[in-house]
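Milestone M4 deliverable, item 7.
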Amino acid sequence: MAGRTFTYEVQRTSGADPATLFDLLSDGSRWSEWAKPIVPTSSLITKGDPEPGGVGAIRKVGLGPLGLREQTVAHEQDKLHGYVLLTPSPMRDYRGDVQLSPRADGGTDITWSGSFTERLPGTGALTARLLRAMIASLAGKLARAAERL
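Output delivered:
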C-alpha cells in the first residue's frame, strides 16, 4: 500500500529585508549560525549554481551520522529557496520551499512549506506534526537572526 502525502505551511514575519534572509537561508554552511540548537553544525558539501547555495548545492545539517543532507532544487534570488531531502528518513519525496515576500511597510513575509509521502503507513500524521513544529522554530530563528544583521 502506498503511503499518504502530507503537507505543512508555516508563516512568519521578519523586520529584515528579503536579501538578508535569503543570504542566511541559501548558504548551507551558515545554518548553524542561526538555527542552533536544532542545527548544531552545518556545512556546504557541494556548491550550486550560482555559488554558493544555488541549484545543485548540497548542505549537511546536524551531527555525524545523524546529520541530514539536503539539495537545493529551486533558487530565485531573494525570493525562493527550494530543497529536497537526500538522507533516508521516515519520509519519501520530501521537498521544502521557503518563499520570501517583501512587505509594503518594510520587512519580509516568510512562508516555509513542504510535502512528503509517509514511508511507513500510519506514520505520516505524527511526522508532519513534528516536522511542522521544527520548521516553525527554524523560521522564527531565521527571522530573528536576519534582524540582528
